[in-house]
Amino acid sequence: MIKLIECPRDAMQGIKHHIPTALKKEYLNALLRVGFDTLDFGSFVSPKVIPQMADTVDVLNGLNLDNTSTKLLAIVANVRGAEEAVVHENISYLGFPFSISETFQMRNTNSTIEQSLINVEKIQDLCILSKKELVVYISMGFGNPYGDEWSPEVAIHWVDKLAALGINIVSLSDTVGVANPDSISYLFKSLIPAFRHIEFGAHLHTHSFNWEEKIQAAHDSGCNRFDGAMKGYGGCPMAADDLVGNMPTENLIHYFKDELPEINYDALEIVNKVVDKVFIGH
Question: Which of 13, 14, 20, 195 counts the most CB atoms within 10 A of its CB?
Fold first, then answer.
């Protein structure tokens, strides 16, 4: 079964103009009607670092979760953020960006990889106590622009460490759009058989000309969990000066159209009427 995770938080976090809280609520409530498995809706991070996400709690309180099966995911960057997130009953998942690039981990969470592994363990304990699931994103999972050591074996090494902590969902993140079909296939074909209890996902950033080959490589290699953002908006503002956009959700829906009976296309049309107002201006 294909799982689609829609990531408006990833799409919004780097937008320079302030998106009004009411407009965020309107957009997220429209997304909740489409039929996505999960909605990555906000983050509990320092507003000084990501000011666009400062209203996450207000947005959460304005979401209408009646008549939707979509679950909510919030990103956290440290234990304090996790402590703030787990008190909210309507959040099912916490997401933590665990970079296998030392440079990016310092830029993104102000901690080393080893320190982040300790944080993952503490956040996992909080999730267990709060009956929530921790999703770990392997940021820079397919390479990095900083010259830090990278190979598929480096990614596999750190997934092994995460598996030892009882992590059940790991999403491989192509944070700056450097993945190619060969590296995607190699990683998923290496990881999925080796860690059968882990659900692996693909959080792929992409250019417009090579999105399909990336989806195909991941899916053919056993991945059934895919992140996307409407119209490909977004990109990590902590990663590089030039953002490479998210995998467009509409491309994922088109590619998997015969495997997504839960998608409500009427609701998707409503989303399409709101999305540009959110990201281009209002």
Answer: 13
